[in-house]
Amino acid sequence: MTAKPGPARGSHPTSTVLLFLTYFFVLMGMWLLLSGHYDFKYVFYGGLTCAVSAGIGVNRFKLPIRGDGRQLHIAARPLDFFKLLSYCAWLVYQIVIANIQIALVILDARLPIEPKVIRFKLRFENPMAIFVLANSITLTPGTITLDVEEDVYAIHALTGPAAAEWQMVAAGQSNEMIRRIARLFGESPEPAVIEGEA
Hints:
It is a single chain. This protein is of the alpha+beta class. The chain has helices at residues 13-35, 40-60, 81-107, 127-139, 160-170, 176-185, and strands at 62-64, 71-73, 116-121, 143-149, 152-157. It has two domains: 13-73, no CATH class; 81-185, no CATH class. It has six helices and five strands, in the order ααββαβαββαα. A three-stranded antiparallel sheet has the order 3-5-4, with helices on one face. Strands 1-2 form a two-stranded antiparallel ribbon. Strand 1 and strand 2 (71-73) form a beta hairpin.
């Protein structure tokens, strides 16, 4: 007798309802924050739109997990909401600091730039962790993610200090950004040295 396969992970009705509510309240919160219209008519149509979007999101917003063919909801695990808020606040602070540093470089008559391309290897199982890291690097002025392939990140750094931080990562030492993203997604924050580049 052949055993029947069990339900796919994350397909439990309770999980689906929780994901729907998560999407709905996040979307509704953003709508209320950004719209500035609080009359019943606008809130009703806004809520209806958010509910439809959340319903679509529960069924469509999935990503593959490496190796076993399963799929992962973007909002799955679920992430600790306060950790996510904390990371976003920290990232905004880093963007502000980096903006000031780049502005000082541009205003300096000597224009002290030292552009470099750095490659480092870091394995995150969750594709959203890879996405967040790559985009966090790009959002921070002075660094851009050029490519991510087979766990190897190629980034461009404009200045010496920015390059030095990621060169340490290439040497096998995690930095604050990697550690925070690893905590957020429950991943290991340990980079690996690329063979032939140590």
